[in-house]
Amino acid sequence: MQIPTYSGRVDKYPPNNILLTAAINRLIYHIDILCSQQLTAVINHTEFLRLEASWLSVFELVNVPVAKQRVNIKLLDYSWQPLAFELNTAFSIKQTRLFNLIYHQELNTAGGLPFGLVLIDHRLKFNADDEYDDLYTAQRLAELGEQSLCPIVLSCDLTFLGDNNNNQWIDLNKMARILQSEDYTLWHLLREHASAKYLYLTLPDFILRKNYQTQVMGFIFYTDNDPCQILWGNSAYLLCMNIIREFERISWFGFLRAYDENGRNGAIIQSLNNGMPIIGKIDIPSEQENFWAEQGFIPFSSIYLSGQKGFFSNYSVQKLNYKHNRQLSMLQTNLIACRFAHFIKMRIRNHIGLYDTIDDCKQSIEQWLKKYVSEVDYGEESIMADYPLKQCAVAIEADPDDPTRYLCQINLRPQYQYEINESDIQIAVSLAAQDIG
């Protein structure tokens, strides 16, 4: 936008002259233009857009209609750079600030509220110029999630797969060749890491706010309607909003991939609070969703005809070699496993001094778990949510690496399976010897 100049004088016009009025109006117009340019320079600055997108996304997240006593949202003032520095330089994950906050101060402390999920407002990308590599930092985040029994969700930048060219995303063969190339060796190492099943990457970005229009706001704000001024949001927020809605609806996570005959609940993404429909930076049809899921991403895709957007798969970054293990990598499976692990650890801590032997502790856990076991394969969602397990087994043994602790191994078989083969969830919970007796 060019800055207009005006060098005319208004004092040469007689009072009440129409030319004087026109000159004043023109000066006011020029002032409006200057104010518009100054405001545009601020609101379209990269850092301002980043802050606006983060806070608008948080606004959408905290305004999901749920009972506030059922869902707790905590904001951590921790930017990506210091987080990457700490994760890359710490000798052990257990020495990091984030592990201390998530595990020690909440899960491992009496009266604490365990974190069910951690959302990181960052888009993973290849950043050779940065001091710390995003992919290695992501691997450390996966280790953090595993050790603190808490899935980690963030998103993937479109430039992760090369140029920011929306057209190339349509060519799935090209995308497959890119991801299988030697340039993505670190990506392959991340996917093969044992902890990667706790890391989830969403894509693509979505429109949080369209570009501003000309409007009156104390002065007339003029805009050039540049499409580059559209505000893009992190799709990890959309996934977390779906999880919160589903927990409010059914008090469980087993139906995150499903939706009813009316196109609601579970996987379907609802409109934003301002009524704006969900529009992705690229439009992924549901027929292509499985491709991206196999590559380690969680895409939100469009349903044919209705155009509704949803997360119809939610596999982790981890690359799985056996089909019967695919569902162990799903987000709802991890949420279920971690939820049971949280309650078991809290239950044992609350029963300190009541167990005489390890067998007493084992039997107590088994009896508690069996309250959630049923042989029913199909039923109402509310019934399946009340009895989410088919089988359970518990084993407690001494920790070979620490004589002051025990390892509690728990096998759970979820009630509702999306694949033909059934798989068991294996949970390992570390217990202090003094907690058992």
Automatic annotation (TrEMBL):
Stretches assigned to the TssC1 N-terminal domain: 26-318
Signal peptide residue numbers: none
Residue intervals of the TssC1 C-terminal domain: 327-427
Name of the protein in question: Type VI secretion system contractile sheath large subunit
Organism: Moellerella wisconsensis
